[in-house]
Amino acid sequence: MKKEDCFYLGKIVKKYSFKGELLIKLDTDEPDLYESLDALFIDLRNNLVPFFIESSQLHKSDLLRVKFEDVDTESDADALIKSDIYLPLKFLPKLDDDKFYFHEIIGFQVIDKIHGNIGTIKSVNDSTAQALFEIDKDGIEILIPMNDEFITNVDKNKKEILVNTPEGLIDLYL
User: Fold this and answer.
1) Residue 132 DSSP symbol
2) pTM above 0.85?
3) Chain Cα centroid distance, residue 17
4) 158: Cβ–Cβ under 8 A, 6 or more apart, which residues?
């Protein structure tokens, strides 16, 4: 399994017991969707390794308490702490038509109300305080905040996102 075919679900943050149980901090608004998994992938030295789950239950809202098969001691568990957890993309819940996952919109055209087609989304930068569309327009990078006030429509069939950006924002790049 490759990382490109998966989504980040969370991180193993600490041991729960001396019997190899671990706590995973889930990066989701709906932790209960992931309470009954059979397996998941753990990033070990940049390789996604499948781990099968013996038992799991939610612990304090966004923590998942997990007992993996063949992880039976504290030292087994210690080796996994701070590892990232992934699941295949097919496990992502379906979203309403006006909502999207970042990986879904790569390649979409961004159409501005005033400037028309301003380019193709090449990635989403979510390392800043507000996520940004990174758009390529003939070799020029345009950054637009992913703000609900700017996004007027998402058409997944046409692979277009319609935006109404503040006056002057697009002009900064062109």
Assistant:
1) E
2) no
3) 29
4) none
